[in-house]
Design goal:
With 269 residues, the chain is of the alpha+beta class. It has 8 helices and 16 strands.
C-alpha cells in the first residue's frame, strides 16, 4: 500500500493511499497520540483471500512471505498452499490425482485398520473402550474420501494412510550424529509408508539414541532411570511437524539427534 500526500484546493494537505496490492486490502487508518505527538496509525489485519500480491509484479513474482524474521518471495509450493488457503481448502483434502474409485471393501478395511490402531494405542482399558469404530460417513466428513456421482474416491489424505503411500517427499528422515554438528553420522534411517507408522518408527529411532539419566532417590536402594528428554514432549513435537508441514513442498520432515539435543525440522513456515 502506497501512502501519498495530496494537496487540496484550499491548500490543506491530506493523506491518501492507492492500492497496489490485490486482492484489495481495507486498512483501519486513524490518528492517535503518542508522547504528545499525533501519529497516523495504519492497521492491516490478516486476510483470508490469500495470496495477496503486488499488482504490478503479478501473482508469481509479487507474492512475499515473512519467515524467520525475513521477507522473501513465495516459492511455487508456498504459492500453491496460499491459493488453496484462499479458497478455504487444503492439499490433503483434494482428490488424489488418479481418481480411481474405491470399493466398499477397501473403505471398510481402512476404517478397521485405523480403528484397531487407535484401540491398540489406548493407554488404559477405559480409553480403549471409548474408541468408536470409524465409519465411511466419518471418513466423508474428514474428507478422507470424496463422493462423486454415487462413487467414492480417495483424497490425498487417504493415500497418505495407505501402505503404498505414493507421495515421495511425505516421509521422515532420521539421523544420529556424532558430536554437536552434522559432520559425521552414526546411524541413519528413512521412514515411509502410512503417516502413523512413520511416526511410530521415528519414535523408536529417537528412543534408541537418547541418553538415559540416573536419578538417586532418597531412602530407596534402587535408582531410577529415565530419558534425558521427556519422550512425550518429543512425540508431541514430531506429530505437529508431520501434521502441520507444507505438503506441497518437496522436502521431508527431518529428525537430527546430537550429543546434546534433538532437532525436528518441518517443511514450511
Amino acid at each position: 500500500i502506497r501512502v501519498a500526500q495530496k494537496e487540496n484546493i484550499d491548500g490543506s494537505k491530506t493523506l491518501e493511499y492507492s492500492d497496489s496490492i490485490t486482492p484489495q486490502i481495507i486498512p483501519n487508518i486513524y490518528v492517535d497520540e503518542i508522547e504528545n505527538k499525533k501519529v497516523i496509525v495504519c492497521e492491516i489485519y490478516r486476510g483470508s483471500s490469500t495470496p495477496y500480491y503486488i499488482k504490478s509484479l503479478g501473482k508469481k513474482d509479487g507474492t512475499y512471505i515473512r519467515t524467520a524474521g525475513t521477507t522473501r518471495p513465495a516459492d511455487e509450493a508456498m504459492l500453491k498452499e496460499l491459493e488453496l488457503t484462499g479458497v478455504n481448502r487444503s492439499y490433503d483434502e483434494l482428490p488424489y490425482e488418479t481418481m480411481k474409485p474405491l470399493t466398499k471393501v477397501e473403505i471398510e478395511a481402512m476404517c478397521l485398520k485405523l480403528t484397531n490402531y487407535a484401540r491398540d494405542n489406548a493407554k488404559t482399558i477405559e480409553e480403549k473402550n471409548k474408541v468408536k469404530a470409524l465409519t465411511s460417513a466419518k471418513m466423508l466428513s474428514w474428507k478422507f474420501i470424496i463422493e462423486q456421482d454415487g462413487k467414492y474416491y480417495p483424497s490425498n489424505a487417504y493415500m497418505m494412510f495407505t501402505d503404498d503411500n505414493p507421495f515421495q517427499f511425505i516421509n521422515i528422515q532420521c539421523a544420529r550424529f556424532k558430536g554437536t554438528n552434522r559432520v559425521l553420522f552414526i546411524d541413519k534411517k528413512d521412514y515411509s509408508g502410512p503417516l502413523y507408522e512413520q511416526i511410530d518408527e521415528t519414535m523408536k529411532f529417537i528412543m534408541n539414541h537418547l541418553n538415559m539419566e540416573v536419578k538417586i532417590v532418597p531412602n530407596k536402594i534402587a535408582h531410577e532411570e529415565r530419558f534425558e528428554i521427556p519422550t512425550e514432549a518429543i512425540r508431541e513435537i514430531l506429530v505437529n511437524a508431520v501434521c502441520h508441514r507444507l505438503l506441497t513442498d518437496n522436502s521431508r520432515v527431518q529428525v537430527a539427534i546430537y550429543d546434546d539435543r534433538v532437532e525436528i525440522t518441518s517443511p514450511g513456515i
